[in-house]
Write a structure and sequence with these properties.
five-stranded parallel β-sheet; TIM Barrel; 2 domains; cobalt; transmembrane; alpha/beta; 306 residues; three-stranded parallel β-sheet; chitin degradation; 11 helices
Amino acid sequence: MRLRGIIRRIRYFRIIAVLSGIPRKLGWMRTSSKHIKVDDEENVIIGVPKVGPAALPSIIIRLLLSILFLFVITLSIAYVLYKPPTVIIKYLQWKYPDVVFHFPLPSSEKYVALTLDDVPSSETTKILDLLQRFKAKATFFVIGSQISDYPQLLTRIHNEGHEIGIHGWADEPSYKLSSVELERQIKKIETMLPLNPDRFRWFRPGSGWFTTDMIEKLKSMGYKIALGNIYPHDPQIGFPKINAAHVLSMIKPGGVIIMHDRRPYSSEQLELVLQGLATRGWRAQTLSKVQEIKTDIVAGKLLPLN
């Protein structure tokens, strides 16, 4: 009896051994040896499973799918930043009512607010000539440290019916400034602007970022933050035709266009935009003018065109 029991056990272990060897024979996995060294003597540990060639395609597919997923997510975020959907602009306008992102108008009102940052520069004269040629108006956001090089340009901007806002003393992120420093810079720039007690006080923070403290400080000084909803990222993208096409593809009644002065292609891209607007029957105006149109429509003073 004992002998039969021993034989049965031997057969059992042989079957287990055969079955355990099937995956290795099929190439599913193979046994690798781990070497450990203790007191200059190398010992081998057998039986550590290692992924075989047959499993590699599955791993590669998973890796490629992960990379593809991350790429799609990154591309989606970039697209939303480049062409923000209307629903996002509406949410931001609701979330921050003291910041201007756009002036929603009836579809019949073909007005947009044109704004230009980083003024004045050697390109500003060309820009003013273009605005005069196309009978367009704009709001110019000035950088204080650049004014002394082109003092006559601010006078021309004012005399030709355009609007002047403040962008900061230097081309830097405004949110990094303390409230005291922000106020000091604004007051210093105010002394350099043409006298115009009736002007609306617009401020556009450097880099486009703002804080709640900044909003409150500017409100106490009589200023309102103006951002926008049509921005071709022209400081980073130096292709006038692409930038102009982007602007024209985003035009909506009451939209706020953000473009930049001071680049060698600034006037070229603006000319393309103004041509496109004129061809389509749109009118470029200052921030204050478009805000006034919206206010009058809401108050019933100005009936939407049919």
